[in-house]
């Protein structure tokens, strides 16, 4: 895994963002990868902005390996199954975590 791969993955994720699914949403979604990288997405006013690093007060934090994130992003792995099998750890707003597939459809 290279930084370039991770950056490209998150940039593609932002490109798949569905503004109509975020009409009522103002949130920060933190991603912490087991490999040590952290990114967060700020969703506000039906827009999504990607930043590297840690946000001070995310609404939800998702922890996983990059491989798991890629499988989720390609639709090869269901988020609930990943959570139940311990491949995905979620802290914070669980209801927001369940909306992610609509906000960022698999691609």
From TrEMBL:
GO CC list: cytosol
The SCP2 domain, residue ranges: 19-104
Pfam families: SCP2
InterPro entries, sorted: SCP2_sterol-bd_dom (IPR003033), SCP2_sterol-bd_dom_sf (IPR036527)
Stated name of the protein: SCP-2 family sterol carrier protein
């Amino acid at each position: 895994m290279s930084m370039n791969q991770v950056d490209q993955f998150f940039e593609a994720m932002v490109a798949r963002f569905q503004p109509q699914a975020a009409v009522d949403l103002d949130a920060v979604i933190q991603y912490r990868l087991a490999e040590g990288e952290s990114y967060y997405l700020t969703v506000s006013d039906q827009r999504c902005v990607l930043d590297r690093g840690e946000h001070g007060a995310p609404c939800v934090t998702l922890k996983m390996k990059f491989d798991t994130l890629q499988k989720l992003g390609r639709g090869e792995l269901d988020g609930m199954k990943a959570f139940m099998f311990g491949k995905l750890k979620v802290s914070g707003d669980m209801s927001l975590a369940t909306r992610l597939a609509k906000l960022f459809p698999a691609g």
